[in-house]
Protein: Carbohydrate ABC transporter permease
Organism: Paenibacillus rhizovicinus
Amino acid sequence: MKRNLSKGLKVVFLAVYLIVMAFPLYWIVITSLKPQKDIFSFPLKYWPDRLTFQNYINIIKISKFHIYIANSLLISLSAAVIVVCISVLSAYVLARFKFRAHRHVMLGFFLTQMLPGFVALAPLYLLMTRLDLINTRASLVLMYTVGLIPFSTILLKGFFERIPSSLEEAAMIDGCSRMSALVRVIMPVMLNGIAATFIFAFVQNWNELFVAVLFIDDESLKTLPVAMNSFVMKFDVDWGAMSAGTVLSVLPTIALFAVAQRFIVDGLTQGAVKG
């Protein structure tokens, strides 16, 4: 009886937890399908009298939604690829070589994760202004890359430490250079970790708002989060358009997680074993 009661309570708790967590997503989706009059109706309608795709039609036809999507994809993918390429090399050095400043470098990486990012925004804005990179996609790619390299390096370092160094030593004995051994032997073994790091970097870049708002003013260069922010007006909020835009904006990340779910779970759990 006690065992059945315990299982029953767990099922009830998980069911309530699932409903609480899923309700905001349901509300966003159903709001995006409501006519304008039903969005502000009182009492609240948890299911509208009729469903409409007018909010989606408006946001696609009236706004430059396809441009915002293209900008977000270009910037997020570019920054994620650069982050992975640099982090793989830096994590390999930190995992395989012990040098005098090794502990200081790791401490510096950890400190960057403790400090809020907005602390450095003022000097970075001045730097970008002097480099004439304000209002360019390159500024966002550079900012996102710099911001994600420390964490990505820490994450990948755990994967390298799980792989015995004898593996690349054997490849080097067979004639490979160290770089060739890294690319041909080590990286295929830790593909899960590389994929998890790439996905983490992409999602962070895709959802980033604060830096993009500060560095981008041109309408044709805005990313999706910046465009979504424009629906919040001075005296009103276009909830229908914002909800429709939110649903469309999460579709790429949902597709990415659905395709690469195995890599994410295996990668993050394996990388956390040793760091």
